[in-house]
Amino acid sequence: MRIVRFIMFALFLGANPASAWEEYVYLDQGVAIQFPAKPQASKSTFDSAFAKGLPSMVYSAEHDHVLYKLTVVDLTSRPDMGSNFLNEAAYWLMRTGEVLTTDFPRVYQEAKAIYGVTLVVDRKDRSRIRSSLYYHKGKLYIADAILLPTRGDKDMSIPSRYDQTIRFPPDGQSN
User: Fold this and answer.
1) Are 127 and 148 in contact (CB under 8 A)?
2) 3-class secondary structure for the chain?
3) Which residue of 23, 33, 101, 105 shows the fewest CB atoms closer than 10 Å?
4) pTM exceeds 0.85 for this model
5) 50 contacts: CB under 8 Å, gap ≥ 6
6) CA 60/CA 40 separation, integer angstroms
7) Whole-number pLDDT of residue 158
């Protein structure tokens, strides 16, 4: 019995802080995303070579030296240009530093699949960004996790988790 209590105690102490993450559902934006803390919401605009001042919403929270952001850009007036906006945003991100990783994530399976692009970039300001970009139903979604630069000569230490889980409701889930 004593061993069982010790194991339970050890598991409790070693619980992953990522378990504290919560999903926030923004049905008006067609997205659900996890944040480690309650995000702040603000209206903004998004500029592109294709259009200036596009309406957007930005949701952000900072935790453990990481700034988590979701930017949702309304492209309903330019639905035929979605892939161009996505690729342009990825292009400008690539130019901010050294690209460490490029990936092509997928949300959902088969005919419901929504594909995007993810970039990890060490930027010139000594921050590291992991950005996943998706275009879906007239909106550009940019989910950023920015590992903020450290002060002094310390190396960047990567937290145990610095990416967000995203989905696009309605997708059959009640949350």
Assistant:
1) yes
2) CHHHHHHHHHHHHCCCHHHHCEEEEEHHHCEEEEECCCCEEEEEEECCCCCCCEEEEEEEEEECCEEEEEEEEECCCCHHHHHHHHHHHHHHHHCCEEEEEEECCEECCHHHCEEEEEEEEEECCCCEEEEEEEEECCEEEEEEEEECCCCCCCCCCCCCCCCCCEECCCCCCCC
3) 101
4) no
5) 78, 81, 84, 85, 88
6) 5
7) 55
Nearest to 57 by CA among 34, 35, 81, 28: 28
The bridge status of strand 54-63 relative to strand 40-46 is antiparallel
User: For residues 138 and 85, is the Cβ–Cβ distance under 8 A?
Assistant: no
Strands, sheet with 22-26, edge to edge from the N-terminal-most edge strand: 22-26, 31-35, 166-167
Q: What tens digit of pLDDT does each residue of 71-128 get?
A: 999 999 998 999 999 999 999 999 999 999 999 999 999 999 999 999 999 999 888 9
Task: Give dist(CA 31, CA 116) in Å, integer.
Answer: 14
CA 111/CA 24 separation, integer angstroms: 25
Checking DSSP bridges between strand 97-103 and strand 128-136, what pairing results, if any? unpaired
pLDDT averaged over the chain?
Answer: 85
